[in-house]
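Translate sequence into structure tokens.
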Amino acid sequence: MARGARTDAPPRTVTVATLAAMKRAGNPIACLTAYDYGFAAACERAGVDLLLVGDSLGMVVQGGETTLPVTVDDVVYHTRCVAAACRRALVVADMPFMSHPDPETGLHNAGRLMKEGGARMVKLEGGAEQAALVDRLAANGIPVCAHLGLQPQRVHKLGGYRVQGRDEDQAAGMERDALALEEAGADLLIVECVPTHLAARLSGALTIPVIGIGAGGGCDGQILVLHDALGVTTAPPRFAHDFCGDGRGVNGALAAYVEAVRARTFPGPEHGFEA
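Result follows.
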């Protein structure tokens, strides 16, 4: 090393381009949710690529039965806490229920999440009906993560937290939605609780990265709710794994999660759903 060379250079920040390059190279993307500074900092140390400030905070932080009561102000506050800890990870903020009933309102609230919260991407639930909003956000320089499959904001319409896309008509419709969202300008797609074969099919059909949760190992990356990964949740979903369960502390568990995603040992067959 040259004399006087810096050894404390800041880590290279994960960007939309980074994620796209990881997909092309076949390098799995390790993602988690986070809601505060301390756990976000721990995730940073573990090398997590993307941190989602999810509206799941309504359940795991606020103690609600659903995500529906979460407000834009709630997400702005928690995003600001997470962003303060992150030099490398891409911070994504959820757009909560009824925060985007039309493109103009959605643009305003997405702008708040970025300007006030410090997010570098926003996430929104919904299929092709959200294409106009995705296009509006993209046209204004706002990166977008779409979300298909089980959409918790539609839990009452869906009749509960159910696996989606099990029949071929639903699966074909989801693929059409995914392609429409990509064409509208989405940079990333999360698929939740869909059959393993469908998630793999979506990942192969899209040029943007596909991140799975309860969607098997054929995606370009994985995400879990932080509390599920740490074994804090009282009744975790079947697709979760307690990475603290082997006697590791929080830091060791987070590192083990990242390692398992990158080695493609998580999720295993037992964490997925069949048609």
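Note: Residues 168-184 form the longest helix (17 residues).
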